[in-house]
Amino acid sequence: MSIKGVASIVGIYEHPLRKAPDTSTPQLHYECARGALADAGLTFEDVDGYFCAGDAPSVMAMADYMGLTNLTYFNGTDIGGASYIAHLNEAAAAIAMGRCKIVLVTLAGRPRSEKPAPRPAGPEAGWELPYGGSPPNIYALAAHRHMHEYGTTSEQLAWIKVAASHHAQHNEHAMLRDVVTVEEVLESPMIADPLHRLDCCVVSEGGGAFIVTTPEIAKSLGKPDVRLQGAAQAIKGQNGGKIDLTYSGAVHTGPKAMEEAGVKPSDFKYASIYDSFTITVLMQLEDCGFCEKGKGGAFVSDGNLIAGQGKLAFNTDGGGLCNNHPVNRGGLTKVLEAVRQLRGEAHPAVQVPDCHLAFVTGIGGTLAVRHGAASAVLERIA
């Protein structure tokens, strides 16, 4: 069974706060949910499906807190930053099966104000934890290997941050609004060789939410019909120690989502690409077919990702690199900006003309160890 065309996104909301010392995590989820429902012209009483991930206390606790008394379907799947794009896929499947009609998906947290909960230890933790792995140094391993295999340079990675900064300058809520140059990225402090500080995403609070429903209900609400046309999710592990650090799980999810939607990379003028680090973006662009493997460095250079200038505009809100990466999870915000582009509601300076297709990716976990990946194709239906 395909989920092509069975579900539409009718409401979106991104919390304006990037630091929320006086607002609890459940309250942030509630405020994001309320905002997305208001955008759709719906109420909490209309919601019969609810999805959240590891940033929430639990799906049961949040449903109770928000007064979701009419639920017939709920899901707490957690694959890190990829969770919310996977939720979009699973919500569409649930709608297609008749399990629910109006699904709420939320993300929220306060990593700058409270200590994050420790990640659950996997079966291999006893062999890995003593080496002190952290997201920057683990992602740096992938960057180093890509450089070794394909000649990718730090200058090329820096162009990804430059593009994000060009977009963030127009976003009043973005954490980093200053436009930066390649030189400034390379001159920023080294965090984990070869990744500089400006190769890394921001750490922000707040969150966001979106509403998924049937195309028929979407039409009755009078909202632009932003329809899910293809989606896929996958897990990439270490393969018994035979791990290739030069590709991500998006090598599986990107092509599958496009195949289901009946489109190809050259059909897109906009993409929301998960950007925990600059290397994350480059590898996914290759994996999803926007350029040949090993050619990502050349593809992202010279402003090719800048709206109105390059071939493929990406993350026109500034993305996780400059705008918002709530609770170290950026997948949901990628959906939000894709919907804005398709609705024609992005900032005029970065709005892609006649944007009718958008591609979205998510990565959750660590690129060079194990991670979840999810991709989706969204289309504006006239």
Can you give a write-up of this model?
By secondary structure, this protein is α/β, with parallel strands linked by helices. Helices cover 34% and strands 19% of the residues. The protein is built from 13 helices and twelve strands. The chain has helices at 25-40, 59-65, 83-96, 125-128, 135-150, 154-168, 182-187, 215-221, 250-261, 278-287, 296-300, 319-322, 331-343; strands at 8-14, 49-51, 73-75, 102-109, 190-192, 195-196, 206-213, 225-236, 270-272, 313-314, 357-366, 370-381. The strands form two sheets. The chain has a ten-stranded mixed β-sheet, sandwiched between helices. A hairpin with a 3-residue loop joins strand 11 (357-366) and strand 12. Helix 6 (154-168) crosses helix 10. It is globular and about 55 Å long. The mean pLDDT is 96.
Q: Main β-sheet, in a few words?
A: 10 strands, mixed
Number of helices: 13
Biggest β-sheet: strands ordered side by side in the sheet: 3-2-4-7-1-8-12-11-9-10
Rounded Rg: 19 Å
Q: How many β-strands, per DSSP?
A: 12
In terms of per-residue confidence, which ranges show pLDDT below 50 for 5 or more consecutive residues? Answer: none
- Average pLDDT reading: 96
**Helix residue percentage:** 25-40%
Beta-strand percentage range: 15-25%
The structure class reads alpha/beta
Distance between the termini: 25 Å
Listing every helix as H and every strand as E from the N terminus to the C terminus, the arrangement reads: EHEHEHEHHHHEEEHEHEHHEHHEE
Overall geometric form: globular
Give me a quick take on this structure:
By secondary structure, the protein is α/β, with parallel strands linked by helices. It has helices at 25-40, 59-65, 83-96, 125-128, 135-150, 154-168, 182-187, 215-221, 250-261, 278-287, 296-300, 319-322, 331-343, and strands at 8-14, 49-51, 73-75, 102-109, 190-192, 195-196, 206-213, 225-236, 270-272, 313-314, 357-366, 370-381.
